[in-house]
Amino acid sequence: MKKFSLWKRWVKSAAGSEELRSSDRLNHARSSRIPAKRRWALPVLLVLVLVLAGQSKALAAFWNLSGDIAVHDPTLIKEGNSWYTFSTGPGIQVLKSDNGTSWYRVPQIFLKEPSWWNSAVPGQKDLDVWAPDVQRYNGKVWLYYSISTFGSNRSAIGLASANSVGAGQWKDEGLVLQSTTSNNYNAIDPELVIDASGNPWLALGSFWSGLKIVKLDKNTMKPTGGISSIAARPNNGGAIEAPSIVYRNGYYYLFASIDSCCKGVNSTYKMVYGRSASITGPYVDKNGVNMMNGGGTVLDAGNVRWKGPGGQDVVNGNLIVRHAYDATDNGNPKLLINDLLWDANGWPTY
């Protein structure tokens, strides 16, 4: 159900620091000032210092970004020393950074519509492309994306490939998967997932009957076999989309966005997660609730400045990128990046 209808208003340079990193300053006691009978406490103090230092690292996980960071539904890739963010917008918008924090806009991917777009989604127009996903696999860069119209599941997922992001020369690989009004799912928000055995899968979905996953052929990078359901919100208007899956230590972790995007500061988007021992599920949250039954532990529901975070992409299991609406800038959507941390029980956190 994603739409970037206010692209001309939202695409602009958004310079400045995005959020102050938190840090604790610790005052170290000198042993000479501590009575001998109390020096037994020094090991305890050392442990406390180390714990607080660890907390400081966690609090500092938010990347301070600057430059042009206007995005919606971002996906992130690093190639050499360069970083690239692909996002919703005309022809697929692209940002580049030479250090990961200072960003500038570079040319979009599509300058004209591939011939198959119009037949797949007749109502799609103006090079309006949604929620891309970029990853390197088997020596190539694969760029999945979706076309649709707001509120409809007459949608399609397309694919482009290149030998490298920097070189460009993207090749149109054509239609991957489509949905029509006769289907009970929506073929948007694609996410390339590589399983523990190195096999490619495609996660997708928005509203309707929820999130899906299908295995891909390694050669064509297109579906082979049946589509499995992995998450749904049957009691919440179906408001779940933007799957992102990462494998870590025996589990597949499914991240998703729930509730409403695209309303500026009134957006209620939130990021949730669950995990499964199998890529096709069942995925359960920290309370053991199946994500097919509306489960999902909230990772981020936003704050005073950043409203409605979502459209996330988990990169290499240690970074999470998403957009949020900036309450200090008329609710314009902007790029946010965090180090993704993991607690002692294997659950994701900031």
Name its key features.
single chain; 350 residues; mainly beta; 5-stranded mixed beta sheet; 23 strands; globular; disordered N terminus
Instruction: Quote the average pLDDT.
Output: 87
The helix content is under 10%
Give the amount of beta strand, in percent.
Answer: 35-45%
What structural category characterises the helix and strand content? mainly beta
Rg result: 21 Å
Number of helices: 3
Distance between the termini: 27 Å
What is the element string, with H for helices and E for strands? Answer: HHEEEEEEHEEEEEEEEEEEEEEEEE
Tertiary shape? globular
Question: What report would you give on this structure?
Answer:
The chain is mainly beta and about 350 residues long. About 5% of the residues lie in helices and about 40% in strands. It is built from 3 helices and 23 strands. The chain has a 5-stranded mixed sheet, with no helix packed on it. β7 and β8 form a beta hairpin. The two termini are about 25 Å apart. The relative contact order is 0.13. The N terminus is likely disordered.
How would you summarize what this structure contains?
Helices cover 7% and strands 41% of the residues.
Topology:
Blueprint: H1 7-10, H2 42-59, E1 66-67, E2 75-79, E3 82-87, E4 89-90, E5 93-97, E6 102-106, H3 117-120, E7 128-137, E8 140-147, E9 155-162, E10 171-179, E11 191-194, E12 200-204, E13 211-216, E14 223-231, E15 240-248, E16 251-258, E17 270-276, E18 297-300, E19 306-315, E20 319-326, E21 332-339, E22 341-342, E23 348-349
Parallel strand pairs: 1-6
Antiparallel strand pairs: 2-3, 3-5, 4-7, 5-6, 7-8, 8-9, 9-10, 11-12, 12-13, 13-14, 15-16, 16-17, 17-18, 19-20, 20-21, 22-23
